[in-house]
């Protein structure tokens, strides 16, 4: 299956990168971004690897997530595609997930 990044997820990962780039250093920013992206490669051969996201069970699509560091990579499976919907910082209020 092919992994596709949705606009929100791209914006999330860009924000994470910028936060660490300007707040800490460029090397750490790139390391975190690369780790998040690399984690999604596992979904190509095992799309149901992630657990179901309990806060999104009421949605039409079945949302799942992977964890990488302090981040939840939230995705759903749409026929032949795995769509990355959102990258969520787990240090935030979990109720924010429902705003996806």
How would you describe what is shown here?
- 32% of the residues lie in helices and 29% in strands.
- It is an alpha+beta fold.
- The model has no long low-confidence stretch (mean pLDDT 96).
- The chain has one domain (2-91): 2-Layer Sandwich (YaeB-like fold).
- The protein contains two helices and five strands.
By CATH, the topology is YaeB-like fold
The CATH architecture classification is: 2-Layer Sandwich
State the CATH class: Alpha Beta
Main sheet record? 5 strands, mixed
Question: Could you spell the SSE succession in H and E letters?
Answer: EHHEEEE
Tally of contiguous helical segments: 2
**Approximate helicity band:** 25-40%
When the domains are counted, the total is 1
| Molecular shape | globular
Please render the helix and strand layout as text:
Blueprint: E1 2-5, H1 7-23, H2 26-40, E2 51-52, E3 63-68, E4 71-78, E5 81-89
Helix pairs in contact: 1-2
Briefly, what is this?
With 100 residues, the chain is α+β, with helices and mostly antiparallel strands.
Provide the descriptors you would attach to this structure in a database record.
5-stranded mixed beta sheet; single chain; 29% strand; YaeB-like fold; globular; 100 residues; alpha+beta; 2 helices
